[in-house]
Design goal:
It is a multi-pass membrane protein. One of its GO terms (molecular function) is iron ion binding. One of its GO terms (biological process) is lipid biosynthetic process. Keywords: Lipid metabolism, Membrane, Oxidoreductase, Transmembrane, Transmembrane helix. InterPro entries: Fatty_acid_hydroxylase, Sterol_desaturase/TMEM195. The protein is an all-alpha fold. It has a domain of about 60 residues. The chain contains 16 helices and no strands. The longest helix is centred in the middle third of the chain and has 24 residues. The protein starts with a helix and ends with a helix.
Length: about 325
């Protein structure tokens, strides 16, 4: 019975309906008008959309079962290995850095806007470094391994990525005055939308969202981010507002004439859990071992993926620049 209860609780936890179910059992329906009640209704949206997306994939005969299977295994592994680490890091950063903030925000709409812009900047930093520092890419690559886009990709992360990400984001926000209560609200909104932007074409074919595409980061933008096409590589690092991508020159819209190819450039089996989860660490270790000098070994850890001690670099910047130089018409289109 204990095993059945554990499985039941994990299913309820995954679906995010525990709080709503508790309110329904108590019969206190007015609780749904409170903040906690509203949150309890929002939490299940992404898991339920994931289930619907998978069903639609089966109907359209595009199940991509190996992607769902591996991402589900990653979710289970992370539940047991790293479920409390990220929370601990957030708490630690708040305690360490809040006293150094020059001012403190309040729970008002204008401070919420300020806090969200700061959060997006912090998210940009974590995400950018996750693509530009080889060791950090080893943590982040698990999220990019899938060869198609669907909501299950939301759960595909190396267990140490969340602690690293939340350490960067929380530290920046706290030092710039975002008070913890406001920060947690922003985390909830951003986490919910950040899951939604992984919605696949089985559910939403054209995800540009009309005029919203001009200032929001839409699922279309995030599909570009997950692409390995030369034009699309290492672009669109933001999560909801694409302001910082525009500021730092990493903004890229989806082009109808360039079909998105998902995944990473390393040859791999996206249906193999070990390859998806540890493959980049193994590749990094091999590069370190073959480097002749200590300096080169250390550079492999901190330089971008594709950097080589031989000088034959295949970084995303090199590949994208070569593509743009070869396709001048594309350069003109993206200006």
């Amino acid at each position: 019975m204990e095993i059945i209860d554990t499985i039941y609780n994990e299913i309820i936890g995954f679906l995010g309906i525990s709080k709503a179910w508790e309110i329904l059992q108590e019969g206190n329906y007015s609780a749904f008008k409170t903040f906690d009640g509203i949150v309890s209704l929002i939490y299940p949206i992404i898991p339920l959309l994931l289930i619907l997306e998978f069903i639609l994939g089966l109907i359209y005969k595009k199940p991509d079962t190996k992607v769902y299977k591996v991402n589900f295994l990653i979710y289970l592994f992370n539940r047991f290995v790293g479920r409390f680490i990220a929370i601990a890091m957030v708490t630690l950063c708040i305690g360490l850095f809040q006293k150094y903030a020059p001012f403190q925000t309040k729970m008002t709409w204008y401070w919420f806007i300020y806090g969200y812009i700061i959060w997006e900047f912090a998210h940009f930093l974590y995400h950018y470094w996750g693509h530009k520092v080889r060791l950090l890419w080893c943590l982040h690559s698990t999220h990019h391994a899938a060869e198609n886009m669907n909501l299950s990709v939301t759960y595909a992360h190396f267990f140490l990525e969340a602690p690293y990400a939340d350490t960067i984001r929380t530290t920046v926000c706290i030092l710039l005055g975002v008070q913890p209560e406001l920060l947690f609200l922003i985390m909830f909104v951003d986490g919910t939308y950040g899951a939604f932007i992984h919605v696949g074409e089985n559910m939403i074919k054209d995800a540009r969202f009309g005029p919203l595409n001009n200032f929001m980061l839409t699922p279309s933008h995030h599909r570009v981010h997950h692409a390995k096409n030369p034009l699309y590589m290492d672009t669109n690092f933001c999560n909801l507002l694409n302001i910082w991508d525009r500021v730092f020159g990493t903004y890229q819209e989806e082009k109808e004439e360039i079909k998105i190819e998902y995944g990473i450039t390393r040859e791999m089996d996206s249906g193999n859990f070990l390859n998806v989860y540890f493959g980049e660490f193994i590749a990094l270790f091999k590069d370190i071992m073959k480097a002749p000098r200590i300096k080169d070994k250390l550079l492999y850890i901190v330089m971008p993926p594709g950097w080589s001690h031989t000088g034959n670099h295949k970084t995303s910047k090199v590949i994208r620049t070569a593509f743009l130089n070869k396709n001048y018409n594309v350069v003109e289109q993206i200006k």
